[in-house]
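Structure ticket #2291
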Amino acid sequence: MSADQEFEEALKQFSPTDAAIQNMRDRYGHLTIGGVDDRVGYVQVHEARMKVKAKRVEVEKTRKALKADALRYGRVVDGEAKRITALLRQVEDPLAAQLDKVKEIKEEAKRKALAERDAKIARRAMRLAVYGAEFSVEGMLDLSEDEFGLLVTNARKAHEKAEAERVAAEKAEAEKLEVERARLEAQRAEQEAVAERLRADARLLEAAREEKHRKEEAAADAWDRSQLSPAGHAYASQVNEFASMVRELPAPDGALCHDIREILNTAAGQIEALVEGDEWS
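Resolution: structure written out below.
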C-alpha cells in the first residue's frame, strides 16, 4: 500500500461522515427555544447539542490517536535516518576532507600567484617611475625579464636625454639673463659716467661764472670797463666760443641729463649776455 493509500485509510477512521453531518444539520438546524418558559424547546435543543458534541469529542479522540501513531512513526523515521546518516558521514567526511584539502591548496596557490603578480607589478612600476615613464599593468606582465630590462633601459635613456635638454635650456636661459644684466649694467654705468661728466662741466661753468663775476665786481671798483685792453676782448671772444660749445654739447636721454642740459644752457646764456653787454664794447 502506498503512502497516499495509507493516508486515505487513516482519514476514513474519522466519524461522522460529511453526509452524517449534513443529516444532523437538517435535523437540528431548525430547532429553537421560544423563551425561558419553553421547556420542550429547551430539552430538544439540549439533546441535539449533546449528540453533536458527542460526535465532536469522538473526532478529537480519533485525531489524537491517529496523531500519536504519526508521532511515533516520525520519531522512528527520524531516528533511523539519523543512524543511517551517521554511517554515511563516516564514509563521506574523509572524502570531503580530501576534497577540501585540495581546494584549499588550489586557493592558497591562487593567493600566492596573485601576491607574486602584485609584487612583480610593484617592482616594475617602481623601476619605471624613477624615469617618469608611463606604463600599462597588463603590458608589464606580458614582458619577459629581458624585454622589460630593455624597456627600462630605453626609459632611462629618454629620461637622461630630457634631463640634459632641460639643464641645457636652463643654462642657456641663465646665460642669456646674465648677458642682458651685464648689458644693462654697462649701459647704466655709461649713463652715470656721462651724467657725472655733465655735472662736472656744469660745476666748472658755474665756478667760471662765479669767478668771472667776482673779478668783474673787483675790476668795477678799480677802473672803467670801457678801458678794457685788447687781451680782455680776446678773452671775451674765447668765453663766447666756450658758451657756444656748451650749447652744442650732446647729452644722453634721461631726466638727470635733461636737468644738467638746462643748467648748462642757462649758464651759457648768462655768459653770452655778459660778453655781448655794453661794458665789453
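Closing remark: The mean pLDDT is 79.
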